[in-house]
């Protein structure tokens, strides 16, 4: 597990992601924003909506020309009320193959656990990984907010 890193101040999580071009590509940023609006999926909604969003996101990625047969590094963002809960969730996810870190959101005071894993983006694989992350978040009193591909050099 990586130690806590202060997040750069930003009001809305989606805006923070959209501005953070070092962490993801412009295509993935646009896809996330478009999907949240077009699908009308609340990131805090039940798992069935998340599975639907995952399927739509993969369709958009395929249409945008992503090479889905190749592995991509995916970042899952979980949010917690306490540092301890975020840290425990990061440790749990580390035990099942995720690289993770706690980031303190200076604006909201929330504690984010960012868990990253590389895998081939398929609906089945993304749903399985999302379910593991979502379950871990719930066990530790948090929520899975969203996932996004990490831009790599």
Account of the 3D structure:
- By secondary structure, this protein is of the alpha+beta class.
- Helices cover 43% and strands 25% of the residues.
- The protein is built from five helices and five strands, in the order βαααβαββαβ.
- The chain has a five-stranded mixed β-sheet.
- Strand 3 and strand 4 (111-120) form a beta hairpin.
- The chain is elongated.
- Mean pLDDT is 75; it is low at 1-46.
Range of helix content? 40-55%
Note the gap between the termini. Answer: 23 Å
Q: What class, by secondary structure content?
A: alpha+beta
Give the strand order, joined by hyphens, for the main sheet: 1-3-4-2-5
**What string gives the helices and strands in order?**
EHHHEHEEHE
Give the overall pLDDT as a whole number: 75
How many strands appear in the DSSP assignment? 5
**Shape annotation:** elongated
Structure keywords:
single chain, 153 residues, alpha+beta, 5-stranded mixed beta sheet, 5 helices, disordered N terminus
